[in-house]
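Exercise 3.2. Students should predict the tertiary structure of the chain below and write it as structure tokens, then compare their answer with the key that follows.

Predict this chain's 3D structure.
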Amino acid sequence: MAQHRVGYAPGVYDLFHVGHLNILRHARSQCDYLVAGVVSDEMATLAKGHKPVIPLRERLEIVRSVRFVDAAFVETVPDKIETWQQVRFDVIFKGDDWRGTDKGRRLERDFAEVGVEVVYFPYTVHTSSTLLRRALDVLVSPPGALSAP
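Answer key:
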């Protein structure tokens, strides 16, 4: 009997955009069952320094509704190994902005110990939640508030 390969694609998935969709599509093409890890508001604030624009409940509903996702899991701890102990995936998918970084090497080392493969996908440079957030900041700021002194 062939092994059932479970994939895990963690992310904040704030201001859901085509980059998120691409990650989930590519992840699903490399596993039999895809679990999307939706980072909690608290964890996102810890990691990014600000609270997501879209609340967790809505982000979870959006991600669960994507046809490439078989299940969605709320990620509440920073330790991916602890998440793995709960979800038990065979492969984790990350953006290639992690490749070659200290956090990426640590992720690879930790998961090698438990037999989990780390697969990197191209980061969608032209569309990101950070860029969308900046655009929203400009739209909602009073005139002249973001101007240089």
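Discussion points: The beta strands are 6-11, 33-39, 71-75, 91-95, 117-121. Residues 129-140 form the longest helix (12 residues).
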